[in-house]
Structure formats: structure tokens, C-alpha cells
């Protein structure tokens, strides 16, 4: 996305890189033999010398998922190093993460150049809607790939999350296997302790991030809209676990909030006497 954005970014004189060059195709190459292991590693880019700017806090997992979700073409490489079942499962996973992308099989990165050059596939507006989690939130459900156990589910609620119970869930239960293997989850959420802010929930492999997204629109129908993509998911158990994290009706909320502080310029500052109950939201 940052690379693509440079083509539309205007200089002071109004000129853009797009005036001189055409962004034709966003191509991501996936290492079939190591994709899952890298997704699970959680290594920070700076540890690998791959950080792109000062204070780059992204992980390898973040980068892998971002590149898959934004691609027009995904070259699934090193297929000679995995068996057919693994290749098929990985192809299905990539399609679930980015239903709009073409998945091109390859060994030794050999592909027909027509697959990656002069395709005319890149479109910024389409790319922003390409990720599977965005499509799910928009109601464009991607059919389950039952043969490989890959599916997705959407959790919605009008109630805010209790910060303590949600923190316990995401740090101790989400990747515990009781709800299946969650490869990707993303969406928007609200903490009862920060009622004025809509948070952005983003989990890729073993890494999860919870950051402020915007001032909360209290006319929005849902406080929680989260998409979970994974293998052997157990949606009923997952939804029940998430529902147990919601603030209960009439429940008073203490000032304890284990989530990292957000720099929201005072939007979510709440006095102790203003802490909400579920009935008051």
C-alpha cells in the first residue's frame, strides 16, 4: 500500500509520480516452504534488518499479510519443496486472505511474464476492498473451502468489551487452539473503558495489535465488528468466548485497563465517575 500511495501523492506543484509512470500490477511472491513458519514467528522487522523507517515496529507477520492482502497477483513459489496437499492448502489460504488476487504457481520463480507484466490489474479503489476481511465486513462472504478446513466468521455486537476479560482472551486464549487456528483477524472494536474511541484490531499469525482508529460514531449499529479467518475454526465456541468478554448488563467497570495506552489527544479521557455500565451504553 505505501508503494502504491506514492503514485498518487502530489507534490507542491500538483505533479504526481503517476504522471510519469503507470503502476500496472502489484505482485507478491510467497515462499510455499516457509510461509506458515514465518507467519507464526512473530519476529520484528528490525531484528532482521528489514525495517523501512525509524521506529518501524512491524513484524514479519504484519508484512507478509499486508503484501498478500494488497496483491493483484500472488506468485506461489518453491512448490517443488512442499507436497501437493500442503500446496493446495496454502493456495486456498491465500485465496481466503485475498479473494481478488490471481494465484500463480511457480518453482524457482519461473512464471509466464504475461502473468505479471502489462496485466492492467492494479486499481487503488479495488485494492482497498480486496482483503478477505474487508469483503466479509461488507457482506460479500467468501464460500468456505471445506476440503482444506479454511473458513471465516464475523462477530458483531452492540455492547463494548470489558478490557480485562478481552485482554485475557487475546493474550491467553485466541491462539490456544480451542477455537481452531486463527490465521488472521481484523476489524473494529470498542472497549468500555474507552467509549469515545473505535479501535482497530489486527492480528496476523502470532502477532496482534490494538490501536485507535477514529472517534467513535455512537450512531453506528455495532460496537464490535471482527472477522476471523483460519483453519478448523469453531465459530460457535469463538463467538461464545467473545460474548463472554462483553460488558454485562448493569456491570460496573473498574479503572483497570491492561491494554496499552493510546495517543488519542484526550478523546478517550474518562473520569472515574463517568465509567459506563452496559445498560448505559
UniProtKB/TrEMBL annotation:
Catalytic activity: GTP + H2O = GDP + phosphate + H(+)
Location of the CobW C-terminal domain: 150-246
Keyword field contains Hydrolase: yes
One matching Pfam family: CobW_C
Keyword terms: Chaperone, Hydrolase, Nucleotide-binding
Gene3D superfamilies: CobW-like, C-terminal domain, P-loop containing nucleotide triphosphate hydrolases
UniProt GO molecular function: hydrolase activity; nucleotide binding
Domain of life: Bacteria
InterPro entries assigned: CobW-likC_sf, CobW-like_C, CobW/HypB/UreG_nucleotide-bd, P-loop_NTPase, Zn_Chap_cDPG_Synth
PANTHER family: COBW DOMAIN-CONTAINING PROTEIN DDB_G0274527 (PTHR43603), ZINC-REGULATED GTPASE METALLOPROTEIN ACTIVATOR 1 (PTHR43603:SF1)
Entry similarity comment: Belongs to the SIMIBI class G3E GTPase family. ZNG1 subfamily.
Protein name per the record: CobW C-terminal domain-containing protein
Amino acid at each position: 500500500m505505501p508503494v502504491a500511495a506514492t503514485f498518487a501523492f502530489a507534490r507542491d506543484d500538483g505533479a504526481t509520480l503517476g504522471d510519469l509512470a503507470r503502476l500496472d500490477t502489484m505482485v507478491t511472491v510467497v515462499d510455499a516452504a516457509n510461509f506458515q513458519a514465518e507467519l507464526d514467528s512473530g519476529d520484528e522487522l528490525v531484528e532482521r534488518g528489514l525495517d523501512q523507517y525509524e521506529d518501524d515496529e512491524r513484524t514479519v507477520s504484519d508484512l507478509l499479510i499486508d503484501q498478500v492482502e494488497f496483491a493483484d497477483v500472488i506468485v506461489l513459489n518453491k512448490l517443488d519443496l512442499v507436497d501437493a496437499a500442503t500446496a493446495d492448502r496454502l493456495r486456498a489460504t491465500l485465496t481466503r486472505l485475498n479473494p481478488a488476487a490471481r494465484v500463480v504457481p511457480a518453482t524457482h520463480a519461473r512464471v509466464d511474464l504475461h502473468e505479471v507484466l502489462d496485466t492492467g490489474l492494479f486499481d487503488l479503489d479495488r485494492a482497498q476492498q480486496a482483503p478477505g476481511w474487508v469483503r466479509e465486513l461488507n457482506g460479500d462472504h467468501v464460500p468456505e473451502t471445506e476440503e482444506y478446513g479454511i473458513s471465516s466468521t464475523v462477530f458483531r455486537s452492540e455492547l463494548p468489551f470489558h478490557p480485562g476479560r478481552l485482554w485475557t482472551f487475546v493474550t491467553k486464549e485466541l491462539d490456544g487452539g480451542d477455537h481452531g487456528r486463527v490465521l488472521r483477524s481484523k476489524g473494529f472494536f470498542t472497549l468500555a473503558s474507552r467509549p469515545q474511541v473505535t479501535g482497530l484490531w489486527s492480528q496476523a499469525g502470532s502477532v496482534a495489535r490494538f490501536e485507535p482508529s477514529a472517534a467513535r460514531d455512537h450512531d453506528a449499529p455495532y460496537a464490535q465488528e471482527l472477522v476471523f479467518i483460519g483453519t478448523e475454526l469453531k465459530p460457535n465456541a469463538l463467538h461464545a468466548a467473545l460474548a463472554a468478554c462483553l460488558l454485562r448488563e448493569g456491570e460496573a467497570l473498574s479503572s483497570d485497563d491492561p491494554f496499552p495506552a493510546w495517543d488519542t489527544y484526550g478523546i478517550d479521557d474518562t473520569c472515574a465517575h463517568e465509567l459506563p455500565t452496559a445498560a448505559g451504553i
